[in-house]
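[09:14] KT: can someone run the structure on this one? pasting the chain below
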Amino acid sequence: MKTALVFVCAILGALAKTHLEEEKEKLHKIHEECQADPATYADDKLLENLSQNLNNPRVEAHMLCESTNVGLQCKDGHLNIKTIKEKVALCVKDEKEVDRLVKKCAIQRETAGKTAVYLFMCLDKNGVTYFHEF
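[09:31] RB: done, structure tokens below
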């Protein structure tokens, strides 16, 4: 019985990792698509230093492109809380911690681009790093 339980846990763990890896690949593809569009291209050095480039229009456009394409924001720029929770839960297993992070990070800002930038940056600073590591 214990062997079966260990086996089931191992399979579930592998499936969870696979899903997280799929999400990472999906986001990498979205990043490349956003970079390929001149309207949403941002130099990688700007993105690597996100906290120093919060007000850069190129950074905002790029991060909004990623955020909408991964489903964190709707086309009108409003946050999609359900999807944000799902994505955070890929990295954070404690449901209360997921809710805390969503409340802390998913805050509508004065523009859709700023909302995207602050969302990604806040999640990254709080250990949800599969989106980007800034």
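[09:33] KT: thanks! The first helix runs from residue 2 to 36.
[09:34] RB: yep, looked fine to me
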